[in-house]
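=== RUN LOG ===
request id: a7f3
mode: sequence -> structure
chains: 1
length: 159
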Amino acid sequence: MSNICKELSEGAKGLAAGIADRAVWFHLLVQAAENQKVDIDKFTDDAIFTFGKNLFSDKKAETAADFVNLMTEPGIGREAFAQEVILDGEDHAIAHFHACPLVQAWKAYGLSDERVAYLCDLASKGDFGRASNFPNLEISFPKKIAHGDEVCELDVVRK
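=== RESULT ===
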């Protein structure tokens, strides 16, 4: 947990800024699609879920710990989201994300708590897409910063 409270490196600051820009872009894209009466669930399933699936299509994860370790690989992403592995068992693994540049950007943009939570749920489809490459694993997010929790909790269970 020592890296959770430290100052972000320049690389992690840059990544967080890029994520923040794209978070606002994402909100505006979803808003435009809503205004055009697009089926948002299908729209985000087709785009965001597929993006996540493609992102991990060449990865290997047999255990819950394998998946959590893929999601929290050392580097600027782990730093930008202040990720911490809580449990890394073969059948059950948990990671906490203590920061979320997307949520920070949406709130800074002035979006309501309800809108932030909704956008978070849509954006997390990418994580479910990643997990879809591993049919023996099931993920959930019992806690989300966007829903008012202190952390986003990624919970992975091997079926």
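=== NOTES ===
The CA atoms of residues 107 and 130 lie 26 Å apart.
The helical segments are 10-35, 40-55, 64-71, 76-80, 101-108, 113-123, 125-131.
=== END ===
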